[in-house]
């Protein structure tokens, strides 16, 4: 192995990550035309409705009954970074917040002391297919932040910077800076109590797109930071002269030079970096604490309070099909975006 490469591994589902991240769920669904009620036109027979992860015909319903997605469920003790590169997500939560985002937008939610939310994938187009390409990254919170108030922020696509690098052969690499800094370019601010809010934690979440045969060198960070590179589109790439193919990840040393040389096709990657929290992790489904006794307390808290209850008509709440991208925050503030 080259000095900067710790390992190259085949990806599982969900994708494996390094501390401070918990995992990454990657959804690449080729949904058909909509049926006029935000669901698919195709027959749902043969699927385990309510828990369909089959990938049948190139897509899944997940926990949705009529509309694909994830009806109301709790989170506590960590953060979710939901990158909706293609397709749309309808968000509703127990704080009374809601929104529709996608096609390049990112939602950053710090669950902290507890929240319920739903994430449905409305198929708005009844005339053509509705593809979805989505990453949901779980970022841990340290013990001191496990009980901070729940909060979500929208990082709209118009506000997320992209850095473009042209190599000596004129081939271009584009880096979408969702979190962290690249040179003098800084991402939008995450949720206020996020582990990423402290720049000393060196959290970086980037989407990288390389033209065929493009060359780009990852910037160096501190030796304490963990970094991972995930290839989700393309054929192959050379990472410091070691081959990596689609469906693999590289664990890299952050303080060593790493040169990426793309193969014969355009390639796309997710890049994650951060200093480890270094605390024990106890996880039970959507509850992430430090000890099993704390998990039991979290479950009891949810049973007792429902994290504020569910103010929406349905656990699988969706928004008006006529609406575009928008967000209504828990304090009543509303954001409306075009497209």
TrEMBL record:
Report domain Pirin N-terminal positions: 61-139
* Pfam families found in the cross-reference section: Pirin (PF02678), Pirin_C (PF05726)
Every Pirin C-terminal domain range? 208-308
Q: Which InterPro entries match?
A: Pirin (IPR012093), Pirin_C_dom (IPR008778), Pirin_N_dom (IPR003829), RmlC-like_jellyroll (IPR014710), RmlC_Cupin_sf (IPR011051)
Domain of life from the UniProt record: Bacteria
What Gene3D superfamilies does the record point to? Jelly Rolls (2.60.120.10)
Q: Report the sequence similarity comment from the record.
A: Belongs to the pirin family.
UniProt cross-references to PANTHER family, sorted A to Z: PIRIN, PIRIN-RELATED
Q: What is this protein called?
A: Pirin
């Amino acid at each position: 192995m080259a000095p900067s490469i710790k390992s190259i591994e085949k990806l599982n589902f969900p994708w494996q990550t390094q501390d401070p991240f918990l995992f990454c769920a990657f959804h690449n669904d080729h949904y058909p035309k909509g049926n006029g009620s935000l669901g698919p036109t195709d027959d749902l027979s043969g699927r385990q409705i309510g828990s369909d992860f089959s990938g049948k015909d190139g897509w899944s319903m997940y926990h949705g009954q009529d509309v694909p997605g994830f009806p109301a469920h709790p989170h506590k003790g960590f953060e979710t970074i939901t990158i909706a590169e293609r397709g749309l997500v309808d968000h509703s939560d127990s704080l009374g917040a809601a929104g529709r985002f996608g096609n390049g937008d990112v939602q950053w939610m710090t669950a902290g002391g507890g929240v319920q939310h739903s994430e449905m994938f409305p198929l708005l187009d009844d005339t053509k297919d509705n593809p979805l390409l989505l990453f949901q990254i779980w970022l841990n919170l340290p013990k001191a932040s496990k009980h901070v108030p729940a909060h979500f922020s929208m990082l709209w696509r118009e506000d997320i910077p992209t850095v473009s690098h042209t190599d000596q052969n004129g081939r271009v690499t584009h880096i979408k800076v969702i979190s962290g800094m690249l040179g003098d370019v800084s991402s939008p601010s995450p949720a206020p109590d996020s582990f990423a809010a402290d720049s000393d934690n060196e959290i970086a979440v980037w989407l990288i797109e390389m033209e065929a045969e493009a060359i780009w060198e990852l910037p160096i960070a501190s030796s304490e930071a963990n970094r991972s590179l995930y290839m989700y589109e393309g054929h192959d790439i050379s990472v410091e002269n070691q081959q990596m193919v689609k469906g693999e990840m590289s664990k890299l040393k952050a303080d060593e030079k790493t040169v990426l040389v793309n193969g014969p096709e355009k390639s796309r990657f997710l890049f994650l970096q951060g200093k480890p929290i270094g605390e024990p992790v106890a996880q039970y489904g959507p509850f992430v604490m430090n000890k099993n006794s704390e998990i039991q307390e979290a479950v009891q808290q949810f049973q007792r309070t429902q994290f504020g209850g569910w103010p929406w008509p349905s656990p699988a709440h969706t928004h008006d099909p006529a609406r575009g991208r928008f967000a209504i925050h828990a304090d009543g503030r509303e954001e409306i975006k075009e497209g």
